[in-house]
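Bug #77: duplicate submission created two jobs. Keeping one. Sequence:
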Amino acid sequence: MENTLVADVMTRYPVTAKPNESLLSCAKKMVRKTVGSLLLVEDGKLVGFISQKDILWAMIKKPNADFSQIKAIDISPKKIITVKSNSTVKEALGKMNKTKFDRLPVVSNGKLEGMITVRDILSFHPEIYPELEEFAKIREEQEKLKRTGLEKEGVLSDGICEECGEREILYRINGMLVCESCRNSI
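Kept job's structure:
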């Protein structure tokens, strides 16, 4: 881990949004892409960052607001903590630990290069967190789905159901990703 660079483990094509995209649109994108945050990018440059928590905070602060009219950039934190792609994973973990963030945008000369998450690091270096048996089980279940061919029949790996919001094994029904109980009620 000492010599592993952020560039070696980062996600190169993170899910992004335009700064003037509505919160409603951003929330839908997060659910569709099963991500917890979006990087706000304009002309290749990182200009903001919003997470599910930011959207929830906006909902609590302005419960009667029309979220199709609020822009993502309006709730983005003013200061964005980033990391460079030539930083070591250890440095990135230190920054995550210090700031209590589980993901950091990767930027070079103001241009977005990717995103690094704790999950990216743990996938690359599982030895740093011995309690990773749960991740191993999830990965094993995904492999079983692929081997049995169920994935081709519309069964996907686990994620967040677009109907009820629970984390479950998902099925693609009518273009939506839903859990088994929601699938049975459709």
